[in-house]
Amino acid sequence: MEEARDIDWLRAVAHGDRKAFERLYLRYHSRLSRFLSRHALQRHQVDEVINETMWVVWRTAGEFRGDSKVGTWIIGIAYRCFLKMLRDTPAVFSPNAAGASAVLEGIGPDEAEEREMRDWVRRGLALLPVEQRLTMELVYYLGQSYEEVSRIMDCAVGTVKARMFHARVRLRSSLPGLGGERAPRPRGSAGVPE
To answer: Among 10, 29, 139, 140, which has the minimal tally of Cβ within 10 Å of its Cβ?
Structure first.
């Protein structure tokens, strides 16, 4: 039902309907904001990428072919706008950015353990290459399927699976060290029985 409504709105946008555009903007703004705020140093940069994304949606709504969900298409545009900004101004974005703390906002004082866990995971994600980190965030934080992520990132589903696999391996080896523990040695390494 929501997808049918999004398609109707997108078709109306293709015909210049500003009200339909406003509805799409409001529907996707918070989702895009959560995704992008994990990387941007400042709020205005998140807004800049969202505005660029929605400007592309406004201009190209008639080009939507229905090969994916409307949301997948919009997130794909945001992903490409984010990468463009990252290429144009690499010092502006950082996985360790203060903007990433937006994920932690709203946590009450009784949830210190949860805050610590989120910070620990955030620091682990910051160690991943950009493609792996974004793939994990699209899957785990935005709930996109591997097929949707492959459309967003314009790559094969196998590439998405490989990025997820390698990201998990890196996190498995780096997270214990970030938490003050020794990283587990792979089986078969010196000193570890098989």
So the answer is: 140
